Fold these 3 entries.
Entry 1:
Amino acid sequence: MKLVTYFRSSAAYRVRIAMNLKGLAYDPEPVHLTRGGGGQHMAGFRARNPLGLVPLLTLENGVELTQSLAIVEYLEETHPSPALLPKTPLERARVRAFALAIACDIHPIDNLRVLRYLKHEMGQEQAAIDGWYRHWIAQGLPALEAMLVQSGGEGPFCFGATPSLADICLVPQLANARRYDCPLGAFPRLLRADVASGALDAFKMAAPDAQPDAA
Amino acid sequence: MKLVTYFRSSAAYRVRIAMNLKGLAYDPEPVHLTRGGGGQHMAGFRARNPLGLVPLLTLENGVELTQSLAIVEYLEETHPSPALLPKTPLERARVRAFALAIACDIHPIDNLRVLRYLKHEMGQEQAAIDGWYRHWIAQGLPALEAMLVQSGGEGPFCFGATPSLADICLVPQLANARRYDCPLGAFPRLLRADVASGALDAFKMAAPDAQPDAA
C-alpha cells in the first residue's frame, strides 16, 4: 500500500498510527502542504482526492481511499486484529464519539486551509490566528477529558488496556496543542492515554518528527 | 428513546433522518441554540454532553450518546435493517468518506459557534461571515460531486438505489447551502440524490420546518 502523507498533518498521522498498530507496511508518498501554496493542491492530486486533503491510501489493487476515519474503519474491517474498536455497539459508540469530537469539532476548525483564510481573506494578524487555534483546543480538550472521566475506565489508554481509534485521534491532537503552547495540566486522563500511547513503537514511528518529509 | 435536537442543526437533522429511515420512534427534546446565548450551553446540558452540542440520544436504559455519525453507526449496528451502509468494506469506505467530507470538512467550519467567534471575537462584519460560510460550501460541494461521479453509480441516491449515510449527511448540508443562497447548478449528481431523498417520508419528517421547535 502507498500513503499520501504530510509529516505534520493530524489526519495522516492518525492513519500512520493505525497502520503501524495493525502491522501493515506502506510506502509513504509525502506531499508538502505549505510550500508553493500547498503541493497537495496540484491538479493531479485533486483528480485523485477532490477535496485536496491528505491522507490518501492507495490499496494494492490501485483503489484509493480518503478521509482518515473512513480509512481506519476500512482497515479495521479488513484487518480486524488487533482491534481498534471495542466489541459492543455501545462501547464502539463511545470510542467513535470521542474520535469524532476531535475529527469534527476541534481539528477541522484549526486546519491549515482555515488558518490561511483567516490570514489572507479576513486579514487577521498572527496573534489573532494563534488565539483562534488555541480557542478551539481549549473548547475541546475539557470535553474530551470529561468523556473519559464519564466512561469510568481504568485506562491507561482512552478506553481500556489497549489503544483504540480514540488514542489514534487524541495523540495527534495533543501534539498540535503542544505546538501552540496550549496548557494541558487540567487533563490528567488525556495525558495518561498520551503517555501510554507514546511508549508504543506504532505511535513513535508515526510521529511527525520520524517522517521522511519532516523539516 | 429521546433525542435532544434543534430544528436547524445539521447534525441533529442527520440523526432524525436515520431514525426515521429505520422506523425508530423518539421523543424530541428541543433546545434552542440561538436564544439567550444558546440553550444547549446550560450547565445542565454540558453535564450530559461536555461539548455542549446537539444531537444527544437517550436510549431506553438512560444511556446517552453523542456525535451524529457515532449515533448513526450505533443505530446501524443495533438495528441493521434497512441498512444505511453497504456490505463490502470498500463500499462502506466510500460512503463513510463522503459523509466525513461533510461532517469534518464542511459543516464544522460553518457551525454556529464558529460564526459567533468570527463576529464577536474577530469583529467580522456579517457580509464577511456570509462569505466565509459560502466559501467552505463552495470548496466542499465540487469535491462531493466528484466523489459521486468517480464512484460511477447509477443512483438515484448517492451510492445506489437506497439511501445511505451519505444521503443522510448530504441533505442537511444542501439545506444549509440553500439558506445561504449558494449556487447548486453545477452539482447535478448531488441534486439527483437530494430529490430522491426529499421524496421519502423519512426525510420529509426530519426536515427543519417539520420540527416542533421550528420558528
Entry 2:
Amino acid sequence: MMERMPRQGASLAEPVPVTISVDAMGGDRGPAPVVAGMARALADNPEIRFILHGDASKLTPLLARRKALRDRCEIRDVAGVVTMDAKPSHAMRNGKDTSMWSSIDAVRNGEAQVCVSCGNTGALMAMSMVRLRKIPGINRPAIACLWPSRNPGGFNIMLDVGADIRADAEDLLQYALMGNSYARVGLGIARPRVGLLNVGTEEHKGRAELKLAHDLIAGVSDAAEFQFVGYVEGGDIPSDRVDVIVTDGFTGNVALKTGEGTAKLIREFLSQAFRYSFLSRIAAVLALTSLRRLGKRIDPRQVNGGVFLGLNGTVVKSHGSADATGVSAALKLAVELAQADFPSRIAARVASLSAKGQGVGTSGAGLR
Amino acid sequence: MMERMPRQGASLAEPVPVTISVDAMGGDRGPAPVVAGMARALADNPEIRFILHGDASKLTPLLARRKALRDRCEIRDVAGVVTMDAKPSHAMRNGKDTSMWSSIDAVRNGEAQVCVSCGNTGALMAMSMVRLRKIPGINRPAIACLWPSRNPGGFNIMLDVGADIRADAEDLLQYALMGNSYARVGLGIARPRVGLLNVGTEEHKGRAELKLAHDLIAGVSDAAEFQFVGYVEGGDIPSDRVDVIVTDGFTGNVALKTGEGTAKLIREFLSQAFRYSFLSRIAAVLALTSLRRLGKRIDPRQVNGGVFLGLNGTVVKSHGSADATGVSAALKLAVELAQADFPSRIAARVASLSAKGQGVGTSGAGLR
C-alpha cells in the first residue's frame, strides 16, 4: 500500500481513524463480492470501520460468517437499488430511498470520510453532485483513475475517465488543475508533469478545443506549480514522461477499458503459453512466484477504483463487475484517500488557485 | 501468414505476381529499417517485387549487401522527403517531388498493387486522396488496423484509427460498410459482426452522433450482409463478440496507441519478472519457446500496418518508428492484400451496395 500511495509528511505513528461508507447493492454481482472485499480490506487495515448500505435481510446473512467484519460494520437498511441500466436523471429524481443515495449521504453528514460504490457510474455522479455539491470554482467534476506506469511510484493518473462524455477547453483546464492536486496529495509528487491526450504530439494536430486547452493549461502551469509537457499520445499513458493525463470522459473511458482489455487478453495468452508444452509447464512451476507478481501487476482489478474529483466529499467508483479482489482494491484506495485527508486538501488547493485569479472556473482572466 | 488472412476460395496453386511500391524515406529512422524489412519480407515471399522510392545515393549502398533483394528491387530516385512534422495540406501542395508522392503514383499508374510508407500519416492520406481518388460513394476514407483478438482468426478490425479526427453519423456508417468489406475480403468472414465503440452498451448512452449512427448502421446491416451487435466498449475491442469495431479517428487512434502501449509495458514487466530470481531465470530458459511465441503474439510490431480504405488503390501505413520487424509485418500485410485482389473487390462491394440504394454516400434515403 505504501508503494502505491507514498504520502509525504504523513505520520504513521498516529493513523487517522477511518470510516468508509459502502453501497452494498447495485453492482453487477450483488452484495456478496462487496462484503467479501470488505473482509479482505479489513484484514489489511484492522482499524477501519464500515457503514454498509443496502437490504439488511440480504446483508445480515453475508456478515454472519464474518465476526471480525461484523464487529466493525454498521448496516443501514435501505430497500431501493439503483439498477445498472437506470438513467442518471431518473435515479437522481427518484433515488432517495436507495443504497447509493444513503451511502453518499453518510459522507455528506460527516459520518464517513469516503463513499465506495460498484453501482451505475452516471447515477453515482449525478447523485454525488446533488448531495455533496461541487467545490466552489469547479464547473464539471471528473473521474480520475490510477494507471500502472514506468514512473518510480508505479502509477500515473488519468482523468476524466467517464464523468461526462464531453469536455470543452475550460473543463480540460480544470481537469489539469484537479489532476495536479490529486498527484500532489495522492502520489506525493511535488511538481507533477501534466500532459494533454491527443492523436499526435505536434502542436498543429488535434481538435480545436484541444488547441485552446493546450494554451489555457500552459498559461496556468507556473501559478499552479505543475509542469505542462504538452500533448501526449495513447502510448504515453503508462510512460514516465508524464504523471497526469488529461482528456475528455469519452476518450478517457475508451482508453481505460482498452488498456484493461489488453491486459486481460495478455494474461490469457500468458497462461496459454505456459500450458503449451511439458517444459513450459515445469517452467511455470519454477517461476510461480514471479508469475504471480507479474499477474498482480497487470491485473486491472488491482487498480480498481475511479475517484470523483471536484466535489465536497470523496466518492470512489468501483467497477460494476468487480469481484472481491476488485472491491478490496477500491476500498484500500478509499482508505488511503481518507488517511491523506484528501477532500479537504484538494478543496484548499483549488480555493487558493481561485484566490490567485488563476483560472479555475470563471474567476480567471479570459478563460471563457 | 495463412492463419492471419485466411482467404476463402483463393487458389494457392497460382500465386498472383505481386509488386509493392515502398516509400523508403520519411520514417523516423530513415531508410535502413525499411530496406532491412524488405529483405525479411522477401525471404518469406521470394516471388514479390519492389519499387523503392527515395534518394538513390542513400538507397544503393543499403541494397549493395543484399543481392537477392537488389535483384527484385527497382530504385526510383526521388530527392524530396515529407517530414514527420509537415502539415498535410502543405505536403499535398508541395510534395510532387517526394518519395511519398512517387510511391503512391506507382499504384496509381498500375505498376504496383499496394503502396507502403512509414511516413507522416496525415500527408500520406492527403496525397493518397489526391492521387488515387475516393471510391465513388465514399465521403471520407478511413484507416483500418488489425487488432489481436480472441476470435478464431486471431484478429479483429478497427477503423478509423487516424484518417480524420472527426466523424459524423454518416461517416461512421461508411466505416461500418468498409470494415465489413475488409473483414469479408481480408479475414474471410462470411457475415462479419460489426460493433460501434461507445462508453457503455446501453442504448441511451453516448454522444448524439453515435445514437444516430447506431440507427443508420442497424438499418443497412441486412442489405450489406453483416450482423450489427450495437454498442461495444473498449474492453470488447479484442473480444470474440465482434469482428469489426467502428469509431472516429480520434478515439480509434487513442485506443490503438493505448493498446500498443499497454502491451509494451506488460512485455517489460514480463522480462523483469523472469530476471527476478534464480529459479525464475531457469524457468525462463525452460519456457523459452513458449515465451517467444507469447512475445510475438503481444508484440505490436507484428500487427504493424494501417490500411487506407475507400480509395482506388491500396495504401498501407506503417508506424513511423517501425524497425525491420515492423516494416516487414506491414509489407506482408501489403502482399496479402495484393494477393487477395483487395482494392478491386472492396470497390465492387461498395458499388453494389450503392446500386441497391442502401446508403453509402448520399445515395441512401434519409442518410443526411
Entry 3:
Amino acid sequence: MTYVEELLESVAQRLRPSPETLEKAKLYAEKLVKSVEELFGPGTASVEGSFARGTMVRSREEVDIFIHFKPETPVERAAEDVLKRGTELVKNLGGTVRLRYASHPYVEGFLEGLRVNLVPCYDTEYGKWITPVDRTPYHTRYVKSVLDERMADEVRLLKAFLMNDGLYGAEIRNKGFSGYVCELLIIRFGSFLQLVRQASGWKPPVVLDGEKPMSPASAITLLDPVDKTRNAAAAVSLTTLSKLIMKSKLFLKEPSDSYFLSRTSFKPSVEGRCFLAVVLDVPERPPDVLWGELTKTLEGLAKALSGYGFKPLRTDRWFEDGKGLLIFELESLSLPQVYLHTGPPVWSMNAVEFIDEQARKQDLAAYPWVEGERLCSLRRRRFTNAADFVKHLIDGDLASFSKNLRPFLKKSKIYTNLDEVYSAMSEEGRIFLDDFVRTCPNFIAQYHSLG
Amino acid sequence: MTYVEELLESVAQRLRPSPETLEKAKLYAEKLVKSVEELFGPGTASVEGSFARGTMVRSREEVDIFIHFKPETPVERAAEDVLKRGTELVKNLGGTVRLRYASHPYVEGFLEGLRVNLVPCYDTEYGKWITPVDRTPYHTRYVKSVLDERMADEVRLLKAFLMNDGLYGAEIRNKGFSGYVCELLIIRFGSFLQLVRQASGWKPPVVLDGEKPMSPASAITLLDPVDKTRNAAAAVSLTTLSKLIMKSKLFLKEPSDSYFLSRTSFKPSVEGRCFLAVVLDVPERPPDVLWGELTKTLEGLAKALSGYGFKPLRTDRWFEDGKGLLIFELESLSLPQVYLHTGPPVWSMNAVEFIDEQARKQDLAAYPWVEGERLCSLRRRRFTNAADFVKHLIDGDLASFSKNLRPFLKKSKIYTNLDEVYSAMSEEGRIFLDDFVRTCPNFIAQYHSLG
C-alpha cells in the first residue's frame, strides 16, 4: 500500500459507525417499520438513506424511515398524518421529537441519542413523482444493488472530505453534494482516490454524463441513473465545485487526515479590515425557505452597496434558533464625499439638457466640464457611511430584499464593530463568524497548518 | 438683421484693431522689412501672419516678419543669424527683445508696445519644406487671395470665440486651432455663424476634406490647401474640438457677447473635494518642449495614481517664469488599508502555486478563499495616502516622467491643501488655479451666468 492508501485506510476505519451504533440503528429501524405498518397498513414503511445503503458516517448516524402513501392522498393530508401519528409513534418508543422541513415536512426523532427521520412519500409510477423524495426508494434500490462494503468506505471518505469544508448537503445553505451524489461519484470512479485525482483536473462546467451541461447554470452534470432526465448534482454551486477541485489538488500534494477530521482554530488579524453585519430575528420557517430568503436579501444588499460605490469583498449569511445574520466584509466603511458623474458626449442630442439639469442638482459639487468628447460633472454623495446607507436601504425597502424578511429587517441592528457582532451571537454564530473572518476555507488553513 | 447678426456685428466692431494701431503696425512692418533687407540682402524679408492677412484681433496685435534663407544655409546658422542680428535690429529701432521658441527659435520684440516677431524661414521648392514655417508664406499668399474685409471680421469673431476658452493656438499647451485654421474654416463656411451652426452638429472625428481622418488620432481633418498631404488641424485635440462643439450649441441657444469678451470670476465651493499639487522649478527650455514634458509627467503620475487605486478625476499642468505646477483633483486623498487580490481559477495550472505564494506575502491581510471558480486573497496597501505615494513615485522614478524634469521633480513640493498651493503660486498661477478649481470652462460659466 502506498502512503496515501494507508492514510485513507486509517481514516476510513475511523469513519465507520461502531458495531454498537449499527446494532442500535438496526433495532430501531425494525421497531419503526413495525410500528408504521401497524398504524398505516402493511407495506407502507421502508428503510432509506445512508443507513439502508450502508454509507453512514460515524457520529452522523441516522435512520430514515419512509412512509408510503397512495398517489390519491392529498399532499397536505399525508404530511399532517405523518407529523401527527409519527410524533406519537416515536414518543411511544420512548424518544423525543422535532418537526423538520426539507422540501416538505417530516418528523425528526431521537431514540437513545440515535437520530431517526419519518418522511412521507408516494408510491408513484416511475417518473410521475409527486414529491422530490418519491425517487429516493429507487435511489436506495439502485445504490444497494451496486455498492459493496469496500465502496461504502470510499463513500464515507468522500462524505467526510466534503463535510469538513461545508461542501456536503444539497440544501440552499451549502449548495453542495448530497449523499446520493457522493454514492454516484464513487460508483462512477471506483474509489475516493480515483475521484479526487479526476476532480483535481476538472474545469467547470464539468459534464460527467451527457454531452453538455444540463442547464447553463449547472456547475456539474451527473445524470441520475434512475431518472435520466435529471441532473443529480444540480444543487452543486460553482463555488462548491471549485472548492472540491482546489481541495483535491492540495490533498494530492500533501495528503493528510486533517482534510477529513480536523477543524482549524486559526484566528487572523482583522487590522484595517472592515465588516458590516445586519443582525435580525428570523421567523419560524422551513430552513430551506429561510436560507433562500436570507440569501436573496444578502445578494440584494450587496448589489445595492456595490452599485453605490462600496466594495463588498465577501458576503455570507447564517441563522439558527430564530437569530439571523447577514455579514459583509467591505473594502471600506466610508466613501469619498464627491464622485465623478459621467454625462453624454457633447455631440449627443441631450448635451445641452445635461448642462441645464446639472445646474439644478442640489448635490452638484462642480459644474460640468468637457473631457475628451464627454461632459462630466462632480456630484456629492448623500451617504458616505456604509451603515447609514444600509439603514436607508432597509428603512425605504430600496434593495431587492426577501418580502417575508422585510418586517424583521426593519427591526434589525447594524454593526460595524466586529466585537459587537460577536457579542450579539450565540456560540454557533460565533463559530460561523470565526469561519467568515478567517476567510480561507478549512482545507486551506489545514494545508498551511494554521491554528 | 436678426438679433444674433446684430450681436455679432457689434462684437466684430470691438474686435477690429484701432486705426492708430494699424497705422503703427504698418509703419514698423515697413521699417523692419527695410532693415532686414539691408542686413540680409534684397528680397530676404516678407510680412506674414495675421497682420499681413488682415485678421489681427484687437489687443492681440502683432507683426510677423519672416527672414528668408537659401536651402543651403544650415538651420542652426540661420537661427543664430536671426537671433543675433534680429536683436540688434529691433534695438536699433528703439525696441526691447525676448528670445522665443516655437518649433524653432525666433526673436520677439516690442516697439512702442507693439509686438513684432522676426522668424527665420527657407525659400524651398513647394513641398520640400525644411522647417515647419516654410509653408507660411504660401499660407499668407493663399489667404490674402481669397479673404475680403467682411470675412476678416468673421475670422476675428472665431478667433475671439476660441481665445476666450483657451481653444486658440496649435501649441501643446492648448492643442487648439491655429490662426490659419480659423481662416480656413471661415473660407470654407463663409461666416462665423455658418461655422458655429455646422460645428454644433459635428460628431468627432470630423472630416471636412478627404474621406477619412488623416490619422486615427486626428479629431478633425481639414486639408491644407497649399499642401494637400497635410492636415492643417492636426494639432486640435478631441477635448478642444468637443469644447468648440459644446460652446457652439450653447451660443446658438443663448447668443451673448460674453462668449467672446468676458471671463467669469465664479468661485465654487471646494468642500469635500480633494486636490494634490506638485509644485516644481522648471528649467529654461522652449515652451513647447516644456509643455510637452509637463504633460508627459502629468500623464505618468495620473496613470500611476490610477493604477494604484486613487481616482484622478481631473488633471492639468501649468508653468510660467520658471515655476511649474502639476495638479490633480482626486476622488479621495486616502485609500482603504486592504484590497481584493484576484488570483487564478482553481482549475489553472498555478492555483496551488498561488496559494503557496500568498502565504509568503508580507502584505497578506487574509488567506486565499474560493469565490466562484477563482481564488482571491486580501492584501494590505503599502500606501494609503496620495501624497506619500506620489513622493514615493518621484523619489524612486517609478512613473513615466519626462527625463529632463526628474531632477526638478526630486526637489518639488507636494501639497494637498489648496490654500497652500495658492500661496505657492504667482498671480498668473492663481488665475490658472481658479480655472482648474472652477472645473467648468468659461463658456459654461457664462451660459449659467456664474460669477
